[in-house]
Amino acid sequence: MSQSNRTVVVAKRASGIPGAENFRLVDRERPVPPPGGAVVRIRYAAVDPAMRGWLSAEPNYFTVPDGEVMRSHAVGEVIECDSAHWRTGDWVYGFFGWQEFYAATEDQFIWKIDRDVAPAPVWLGPLGLNGITAWLGFRHFARPKAGETVLVSTAAGGVGSVVGQLAKAGDVRAVGLTSGSDKVALAIEEFGYEKAIDYKAAGDLTSAIAFACPQGIDIYYDNVGGEIADAAFANLRRGGRIIQCGTASIESWIPTPVGPRRERDMLVKRLSWNGFVALDHSDLFPTALADLTALYRQAKLKSREEVLEGLDAAPTAVQRLYSGQNHGRLCIAL
């Protein structure tokens, strides 16, 4: 086996959506197991919208410094081991990054995956952090009730696709926002949405949401912010809940963008607005994963992946994600 470790490292900060100029492919020495740890041969690595924030010069909940391997959650196989927690041949999930090999210490947050339950890429989607994020925002923070209506932005994305299916499983009416007729069809036919709106073709989006949700919205699961969120706010019912999972549509937070003021909506409609980062709630991961796995076994949780081949595809992968070219959870096979 090769003694080198091919990696994708951060070359410089991104002023917008990261592209090839923000990364470098570098060969490094293959790691050895740390005391009590293991070496993981990475097989699939994720591409996520959050990577834009991790590479921004603006303040964020997490930053990947220049010169470091690009952060990514991934799945792979334990090939060397000095640990009581894992064995050679185990398949595991963790934040391993865009690289071929990762040296894991025994105190890191890593869990085993079962490929008898689902193929490895599925553990980067509905049975991984995407699914857990969807579960936390929807089940834990939004507190849905049967018969309510949830509106979800990026409905065909890695998180939004799971929210739609969780809603359907809980007898909650789901309406999705996405782009393109193919993704509208995907949201309805595979991801549990009763209706889906192509926000790019809708014209007056506020009116389009009102038509699709004539009784109003009880929950808005927001992955994008910006003008799409403005249209959703106008349709929230009294007691509505906004779950802020992402802000993908905002080009820059310096200076802070100023849009419609929503303080009056918050007051008059008695709204609640909850932001969260999934990693702050690791104590709930086992509960979320057990629920998601049960739904997957019952064929109530579908998954679709688009797999790019090799690390050469990584430097332009985030651009592909933000341009909407992907069809399914985007990941890289190594």
- The outline comes out as globular
Summing up helix and strand content along with how strands pair, one would put the structural category as: alpha/beta
Question: How much of the polypeptide forms β-strand, as a percent range?
Answer: 25-35%
Low-confidence stretches: none
When the domains are counted, the total is 2
| CATH first level of the largest domain | Alpha Beta
SS element count, helices? 9
Largest sheet: 7 strands, mixed
Fraction of residues in H or I helices: 10-25%
Annotated CATH homologous superfamily of the largest domain? Medium-chain alcohol dehydrogenases, catalytic domain
Reported by name, the CATH topology of the largest domain is Quinone Oxidoreductase, Chain A, domain 1
What would you report as the Rg, rounded to the nearest angstrom? 20 Å
User: How confident is the prediction overall: mean pLDDT?
Assistant: 94
Structure summary, number of beta strands: 15
